[in-house]
Amino acid sequence: MHLVCRRRVRHSSSAKVRGCKERHSQRYAGATFLCHFHETQGRLGRQQADTGTKALRVLVYPHDLSIGGSQINAIDLAAAVAAAGHEVIVYGIPGPLVSYIEERGLRYVPARPLKYRPAPSRIVQIAALAQSEHIDLIHAYEWPTCLDAYYGAGLLLKVPLLCTVLSMQVPPHVPASVPLIMGTSDLAIEARKTHRGQVWVIEPPIDVDHDTPFVDGSAFRNKHGVADNEFLVVSVSRLAIDLKLDALVRAIDAVDMLAGSYPLRLILLGDGPAREALTARAAVVNRRHEREVVVLPGADLDPRSAYAAADLVIGMGSSALRALAIARPLIVQGEQAFSEIFEPSTFDLFLRQGFYGLADGAAGAGRLAAQMEELIRDPARRAALGRFGREMVTKRFGLQRAARIQLDVYDRVLANPPLCRFVEALHSARLSLMLEIVNHDPFRKRAKGSREQEILLTVRSGSWPPVLGE
């Protein structure tokens, strides 16, 4: 049973669900996916209607609205909370995912695009929204958005605040009293060592009714000219310098090592600042083999057909989980040459640390190429791994399960809202100010820019990993 909101009660859940459905059907009559979502999530809403609880008003604040796994997770969970009968507003700096928010039938409020973290203009805007919309709970994703919500609506207006952290480290900038949701068990254990607020774990959720083995990948293969006898490897990722680049370069190099022995194709689906350099590296590989081995076609807001078309998926985070939901065999990548086949023997590892890892930073892509070759040569094993992955994701990472956990967390936060302390507000302000000074220091910015250009120069044609400063 979900908490009856003590602060403001505006509508019954049944009336809210009816009103939302009417508005959504009028505005998005052609959005068949939205209809599917409400059907699959309807049980949550019916449970709330049966218990007679009241609707909450929740403001969800993703860290940005560019295409990325954590942002999509935030929107999917927001839609699940709305389908359970609550009123949800998504607030964020405009980006490509605004259309995805609208497809989910959620109300969107654009944030002011000031670059500073925290941003005074957004602090004021969120506080005004909390007052005008009678917000009961603010759910922010990552530490910058958390501070935007904390210093106005949280600290001054006493609106309960919850912060989800899906990055791969515990941020020290979040005030110690703010309740946290971490994306992995290992990170939650680490957070509890220093954080006095409550800490929960919700792994990245996957809509297993939307991402299924029945998705057809034939159109994707036809679109990119992938022959039936070609072995297609797919990676869906932001083409970013931080976190992603090591895995992307090693993927290209591993395929390069194998393309002389197998009819192999790699498609890197995504966009970002490293795209031009990765395209140049891919062109070198393509010229060497005198055929199109590596392709970078850009980003796709709905990459399900790419996963379904793949004989093998390589990647990390939510992208890896979506591949498993569609029953594709998977190699999980990370940084510093990390890669492991997802299989029963590695399942517990990924439950603890998330679908990501760090290794020894070995030169070259030999480890990844050997793992890929194992799976290329064993179609029966690939099929078994696909079935195992689908089963595990359905049991452990389903969106409905995550939504139930998140609604329970909302109950707990609202039942025992934390007391904000002035000293912790000062501590977080000092840390974030120091970071902003560093980030906006012109000398450091030039040094960072030079370092990134040196890395990208190596991506274009050099050996990997780069040896910087030489």
In terms of structural class, how would the helical and strand content be classed? alpha/beta
List low-confidence stretches. Answer: 1-51
CATH hierarchy class name of the largest domain:
Alpha Beta
CATH architecture of the largest domain: 3-Layer(aba) Sandwich
Give the CA-based shape: globular
Major β-sheet annotation: 7 strands, parallel
Q: Average pLDDT value?
A: 88
Named CATH topology of the largest domain: Rossmann fold
Radius of gyration based on Cα positions:
23 Å
Tally of strands: 13
Helical amount: 40-55%
Chain oligomer state: single chain
Distance between the termini: 62 Å
Within CATH, the superfamily of the largest domain carries the name Glycogen Phosphorylase B
Structurally, the number of domains stands at 3
- Largest sheet: spatial strand order: 3-2-1-4-5-6-7
Please give the count of helices: 18
Pfam families: Glyco_transf_4
GO molecular function: glycosyltransferase activity
Keywords: Plasmid, Transferase
Organism: Sinorhizobium mexicanum
Task: Compose a concise summary of this entry.
By secondary structure, the chain is α/β, with parallel strands linked by helices. It has helices spanning 13-27, 32-51, 69-83, 98-103, 120-132, 143-154, 185-192, 218-223, 245-258, 275-289, 304-309, 317-325, 347-353, 366-376, 379-396, 399-415, 422-440, 442-461; strands spanning 57-61, 87-92, 107-110, 137-141, 161-165, 180-182, 199-201, 231-236, 264-269, 294-298, 312-315, 330-333, 339-341.
